[in-house]
Design goal:
This protein is α/β, with parallel strands linked by helices. Helices cover 39% and strands 17% of the residues. It has one domain. Helix 1 runs parallel beside helix 2.
Amino acid sequence: MANASTALNIVSHSLILSVGNEVLSTNLEYGAMDRMGEIICERKRAKYIRANINLPIVDENSFVHNVWDYVNEKTEVISAAFIL
């Protein structure tokens, strides 16, 4: 792979998503990865959700709980490519 973005792009395009599925990311995501998620969800008619992560992140548990609040029965993918 040329770089991590290329690898994530390949993996993202191979996702099997259906109408109504959700891909969960965060508001901390790198811009190019965020846009890629939007495009893939648009093409596959899924919904791209951004969990609003409160800063500063005080510990691992608060981060996980913050993201998990956005998970539901429609969530198919959780993407946390950018972690502080």
